[in-house]
Structure formats: C-alpha cells, structure tokens
Amino acid sequence: MIRALEPDDLAPATYAWDVHATGLRVRVGRNRMAVDGLDLAFGTGVHGLLGPNGAGKTTLIRALATVLRPTGGSLELLGTSASTVDLRAVRRRIGYLPQDFGYYRRFTVREFVEYMAWLKEMPGREIPDAVQRAVERVGLTERAGDKLRTLSGGMVRRVGIAQAIVNDPRVLLLDEPTVGLDPAQRLRFREMLRALGTDTCVVVSTHLVEDVAAACDDVTLMARGRVVFQGDPAALAAAGTDEHPGDSAIERGYSALLGPAGEGSGW
Ligand SMILES: Nc1ncnc2c1ncn2[C@@H]1O[C@H](COP(=O)(O)OP(=O)(O)OP(=O)(O)O)[C@@H](O)[C@H]1O
Q1: What is the reported pTM?
Q2: Ligand 1 center from residue 205 Cα (angstroms)
C-alpha cells in the first residue's frame, strides 16, 4: 500500500532498542513496588513476559504503554524517556491491548476500531484502509458490521488485538491476549504474533507457558517485580529436569526457576 510519509518515518532511528529499561521501578497503589529494579532491552521480535500471579507483568506493560510513570530507574521507549512530559509522539507508535479492555457494546467492530484509530490521532485519510487491514488480520472481516455485543468473548478479544495493531505500531504491547481464545483461535493468534514479530517489537504477557514456547523469540520470567530469567524458550526448557513438575520441558524449566508451587510469586 502507498501512503504519504509522516515526519516519524523520516526521523532517523538513533536508538539501539525500542524498549530499554535500567533498574526500572514502578509503584502501584500507595507504596507497593510492583516492578522493583528491572533491566530489559527489546528490539524487533516477540518477547514473552511470564510469571506467576502478582509478579508485576501487568504493571510493567502499563509502564511500557505510558499509562504508569516510572518511579525510579530509567525507561526509554523508541529513544524517548518515559518520564518526558509530552509522550504523544511515542504513544502514536505504540499499540496496547490491556488485560481488561473497555469497549462500547453498541459499536460495530469497524466503528470501534475506527474510533480507536482516531483516538491514536491517525491521519483521517488513512483510517478506512488501516481499519480494514487490522480487522482482516484478526479474521473478523465478515463480522465487521456487527455490533460488539453480538460477538463471543474470543471474538471481542480479537477486536482488542485489531485496535492495538490498527496504527501499525512499532511497539505492540499485549497483556494476556490469549485469555478467552479457544484452541484453534490460539493457534491462529500465535501465527499472527510470529508474523508481527518479523518487523515489530512485540511484548506479550501470558501465564500460558505454551504460548511462549510456540510464539516467542525470548522470554523474561518475572517474580516479585524482578527478572528471574531471560533467554530463549530452549534455554528456559533446559533449566528444568525430570524432577521438576510440569507437562512439558518448558513448564519444568519454569518450575525449576520459580521453585515449588511458584515460590517466586507474591502469594
Ligand atoms: N493499584 C494497586 N494497588 C496496590 N497493589 C497493586 C495495585 N495494582 C497491582 N498491585 C499489586 O502489585 C503486584 C503486581 O501486580 P500485577 O498486576 O502487575 O501482576 P501480574 O504479574 O500482572 O499478575 P496477574 O498474572 O495476576 O495479572 C500484585 O501483588 C498486585 O496485587
């Protein structure tokens, strides 16, 4: 597709990483440090965030989405500090699917994705094509004119993914995107992730170890707001032995690193 070049396209990319965190700390509520000294460097590819409930995955993703400001350390997104006052230019290049995303039940699929494109300040002339492509990519073309309230939970999740990718983001943040998808949808979703990861920095949080094995180039395993392990899925699998609980090598690696019953969890 041919489109007019935007200033962002012409600006030289002078940063080494799309997402770069050093000693990142993010406070939630009054004094809970849900992310507590985290180092990350992500470029193009699919980066899985794994960890037990309460590990800090959602808090980290919210910080990467610029919803939460860092409390300490440094976070650079597309070469810009996340502590900068005006983050609009960065936000235009980010796609974000929150864990619980709010939507308007009376909107049609097309209307909702269009509305989100508009909120992302996409040029009006680009919106119709971009919406069509995003809806097609999540396999909902036939339902584009249907109201969201008539869709199944899995389909709504796909609409959430469509709104996240409508602006062709450079950084795509997906918080538990496979929740509510049936096995066939999950397989298609993993294919889509791999395709997106060829030219986008995708950060995906999940509690499904199989998602990571099937679709991620590397894994960051978190517990108590810190990184417990970083490496590729094969290295995660290699961390476990037959003694460790789990149905697959990668699950055994996960158990080995977190200890029995997820010792690393906040429980
Ligand atoms: N607004 C808040 N006020 C107080 N504590 C919070 C708040 N938000 C999150 N927390 C706590 O911070 C910790 C990290 O939460 P977070 O949601 O980031 O974890 P998570 O890894 O995404 O977990 P899950 O897999 O359950 O979604 C948890 O112990 C959680 O209870």
Answers
A1: 0.90
A2: 13
Residue with tokens 């030289």: 12
How many Cβ atoms from other residues are within 10 Å of residue 111's Cβ? 16
| CA nearest neighbour of 224 among 19, 53, 29, 22 | 53
- Rounded distance from Cα 35 to ligand 1 centre (Å): 9
CA of 74 to the centre of ligand 1 (A): 21
Domain-wise residue ranges, the chain: 14-58+68-90+203-260
Query: Who's near 97: CB < 8 A, 6+ residues apart?
Result: 160, 161, 163, 164, 173, 174, 175, 177
The domain made up of 14-58+68-90+203-260 is a member of CATH 2.60.40.10? no
Which ligand 1 atom sits nearest the alpha carbon of residue 225? 14
**Strand order of the sheet with strand 45-50?**
94-97, 171-175, 201-206, 45-50, 218-223, 226-231
Q: Tell how far the Cα of 20 is from the centroid of ligand 1, in angstroms.
A: 22
Average pLDDT of the residues in 2-9? 62
CA distances (Å), 47 to each of 200, 218, 267, in order? 11, 5, 25
**pLDDT, tens digit (0-9, with 9 covering 90-100), for 210-252:** 888 889 999 999 999 999 999 999 999 999 888 888 888 888 9
ipTM metric: 0.93
Structure tokens at 246: 């789990």
Going from the C-alpha of 90 to that of each of 73, 76, 107, 196, the distances in angstroms are 19, 10, 27, 19
Ligand 1 interacting residues, C-beta cut-off 6 A: 28-29, 32, 34, 51, 53-59, 207, 266
